[in-house]
Amino acid sequence: MLRVAVVGSGPSGCYTAQSLVQRDPDVRVDVLDRLPCPYGLVRYGVAPDHEKIKSLQGNLRTVLEHDRVRFLGGVAVGGPGGIPVKRLRELYHAVVYCVGAATDRQLGIPGEHLTGSWSATEFVSWYSAHPDAVTQDFLRGVRSAVVIGVGNVAVDVTRMLVRDAGELRPTDMPQGALEVLAASGVTDVHMVGRRGPTQARFTTKELRELGGLPGTEVTVDAEELALDPGFADLAALAAVQRRNAEVLRDWAAAPPRNADRRIHLRFFLRPVEVLEEDGRVAAVRFERTAPDGHGGVTGTGRFEDVPAQLVLRSVGYRGVPLEGLPFDVASGTVPHLEGRVVRDGVASPGEYVAGWIKRGPTGVIGTNRPDAKETVTSLLADAPALVSQPVPEDPLPALREVGIEPVPWPGWLSIERAEAELGARLGRNVVKLADWDALLGAARSV
Ligand code: NAP
After folding, report:
1. Which CATH superfamily, name and number, covers 3-102+319-405?
2. pTM of the full predicted structure?
3. For the chain, where do the domains classified as CATH 3.50.50.60 start and end?
4. Separation between Cα atoms, residue 327 and residue 350, nearest integer Å
5. How do residues 217-252 score in pLDDT, each as one tens digit?
6. Gap from CA of 356 to ligand 1 centroid (Å)
7. Which atom of ligand 1 is nearest to the CA of 195?
8. In this structure, which topology does domain 105-316 adopt according to CATH?
9. Residues flanking ligand 1, CB < 6 Å
10. 97-116 pLDDT, tens per residue?
11. How far is the CA of 309 from the centre of ligand 1 (A)?
12. Which of 118, 157, 289, 290 has a Cα-to-Cα distance from 272 of 20 to 30 A?
């Protein structure tokens, strides 16, 4: 038997495990996760109102319930309290790191870390009930919010800021976040791109959804669209950009509806400073940019301040180095060759990567399937040499030796039951448990 550890139970980890057991009848896979809960960003990143995408959990579940796959939650790798990378390697014939991109990119502008300025990741973690979420205090006194960036995460957080709480009630959003959103006084959300609308990273389905939110209207400045050379010939654009441009053009032409809440989509504005008043965010200063003819932009020396009591920086995720694994600081990924980790310029059989830590934080969930497949092809090609390494029959005693007591699959099922019970008590559907004590209490109750 080839024994493989997959670190991370998000889409890339699950697709890696699936590909392994489908392609080799002699492989057993342990899927380890730092959290007692599986599914990674499908549970803790996909917005709660995107129920169709969330339902992918059902597919990932069948992988983790496969008879040659075992989920071990509560197992950190590297860092304080985690099993060191080197030790983990001794316990399995091969280890595949599918740890994603756990932090956010920085803007590097003054005021970025003022009170009231958060990364979109922090906001997403809060409404997704991540047990490491930092605060509840996002919306106190907030009427106007600025979202920096025009990718799909920016669209998600913008939508969550204006969505009617009644519509969120049927979701699995934690009760605390639902109550905060229900009491929200946010009337204006400015979602701002530094380049033009035809260079925005959002996809059309997600963009269109903003136009269908009850009680909310989307405003687009026709003059800003006109700054984009892409609008001169929409037919020459790639399909997504053309469809996005058509949606934006229609919104720019629509008469105002005097809705209670407004989403302002802005372009060609580069953030240069987050401004403060009484120690907290008061506005974001942007410099007007202009296309440079090569897909980028240049500053024009003209500035605009957009008032805001909340700033969400949604400028992309970034991988985090794992002690004991090589890391490329420029790309925020682990260097690899067809999924094999590269140490000192040489591919290192027995250690692999898949997903965002391999290719960077791009693509949709499905992108992880071919990505995982490539890594598994490399691993299975190396397998004849790898199985000659002696490994323990079961790595659990070695994990316990370093103080780790894994949460097994029945522990996760117990969390699921506790979330269903909580939902029933609150007169809602399933409601997520939002803190470590509640999660571990439920997991250990089996
Ligand atoms: P993203 O797609 O890479 O978008 C990042 C945005 O931040 C871009 O608009 C980028 O502008 C901007 N940006 C970067 N640095 C900046 C700076 N210094 N100043 C101002 N703006 C800056 O990242 P994301 O939105 O975090 O999404 C990550 C991945 O998850 C994507 O593949 C996304 O499609 C996926 N996702 C999908 C869904 C869905 O399918 N529903 C939902 C959420 C996330 P430039 O282009 O100018 O760099």
Report:
1. NAD(P)-binding Rossmann-like Domain (3.40.50.720)
2. 0.96
3. 105-316
4. 17
5. 999 999 999 999 999 999 999 999 999 999 999 999
6. 14
7. 47
8. FAD/NAD(P)-binding domain (3.50.50)
9. 107, 148-154, 156, 193-195, 199-201, 206, 271, 314-317, 361-364
10. 999 999 999 999 999 999 99
11. 22
12. 157
